Amino acid sequence: MVAIVGALVMPVMLCGILLYGLFKRVNVFDVFLEGVMDGGKTAVSILPALMALVLSVTLLKESGALNVMVKVLDPVSTRLGIPPEISPLTLLCPISGSGALSMYREILNTYGVDNIVERTASVIMCSTETTFYAVAIYFGGINIKEIRYTLPAALTADFTSFVVSSFLVRLIYG
Amino acid sequence: MMNYIWAGMLVFSFISAAFFGNMQEMSDGIVKAAEDSIEIVLELGGILMLWSGVMAVAKEAGLMDKIARLLSPVIRIVFPKVEPKSETASLISMNITANLLGLGSAATPLGIKAMEKLYEEGGRKRYATDEMIRFVVINTAALKVIPTTIAMFRQEAGAKVPMDILPASLFASGASLLSGLLMAAVLSKIFRPKGE
């Protein structure tokens, strides 16, 4: 059921828009090609900011710096009611989407499903995006470096998600 | 600010690598990062180009205006400076819609386009405007109605009802979004753009 609904949304959106275009007598093929060209320019403009981000995240991981940050933040997250098993995940969530996803799958493998640890991890994965990545590509595309208070505001949202997710899972399923 | 955060991350990595004896890993990491970022741009670029094409059709057919009208109450509250009938409003609406449906790969291209429009209509300032920041915060809070990806992972792993985390995830993303916007509202009073 989940898989069917999930698989339906994208194809329906794609075909729906194209059919509507035909219905409105739009030259869908030509217009599509123009749009693609335009998207290509945007993709290129994102590259520099993205490379800067990927470099810093990869080096934090490979150098062992990320482990240090996890250890430092561990007591804090425990005090906030975040299960210690997933505190590394909360650190990874805002900075690396692929990293968070692979750690999430590891949590699924290690702890199984339908328990507090797994549910908390799942809810966190559902309610956060990769903040640094979003900031890098959204501001990178328009080449803005003075991002003012973006990071504190966006990280507040992430932080709230971690704490509220942990609390709610304990409350509802605990 | 990005200056210090970015350089700080790299220097901190170097010190950690020296301390833990991970210099070879860090060295390999530098090469890997260069390759990875090209790979991500190719991946993201492909999907970005595809949806740019589809959205061009939607725009030409007048579908974007319809969707903008649908979400115009939201736009009016969160983005008071954005003209409710403009293309910017449609792009923001489409981005929010795609996010709600759990279509991250469609939402990102729309969001990038929306940022371009916010930039053009905001007077091409060299700093981030309050509207841009609010928009990015909405995107990082990940409000979605159907968390398809995670539900699929849970199903694969054998969860009895993969979607049963929905109430918690809806509430958590709602709280996250509100707190982010609230924080943005407070900070926008403190961090005035320089030289304005």
Structural account:
The complex is a heterodimer of chains A (174) and B (196). By secondary structure, chain A is an all-alpha fold. Chain A has eight helices and no strands. Helix content of chain B is 77%, strand content 0%. The longest helix of chain B has 38 residues, at 23-60. The mean pLDDT of chain B is 88. The two termini of chain B are 18 Å apart. Chain B has helices at 2-20, 23-60, 63-70, 72-78, 87-100, 104-121, 130-141, 148-156, 166-190. Chain B has nine helices and no strands. At the A-B interface, helix 1, helix 2, helix 5, helix 6 and helix 7 of A face helix 1, helix 2, helix 6, helix 7 and helix 8 of B.
Summarize the structure.
Chain A is mostly helical and 174 residues long.
Counting DSSP H or I runs of 4 or more residues, the number of helices of chain B is 9
The chain pair forming the largest interface, with residue counts per chain, is: A-B, 99 and 110 residues
In what range is the share of β-strand residues of chain B? under 5%
**What is the element string of chain B, with H for helices and E for strands?**
HHHHHHHHH
| Oligomeric state | heterodimer
Q: Strand tally of chain B, please?
A: 0
SSE inventory with pairings:
The complex is a heterodimer of chains A (174) and B (196).
Chain A: H1 2-23, H2 28-62, H3 65-79, H4 87-92, H5 97-111, H6 116-127, H7 131-141, H8 150-173
Chain B: H1 2-20, H2 23-60, H3 63-70, H4 72-78, H5 87-100, H6 104-121, H7 130-141, H8 148-156, H9 166-190
Helix pairs in contact in B: 1-2, 2-6, 3-5, 5-6, 6-7, 7-9
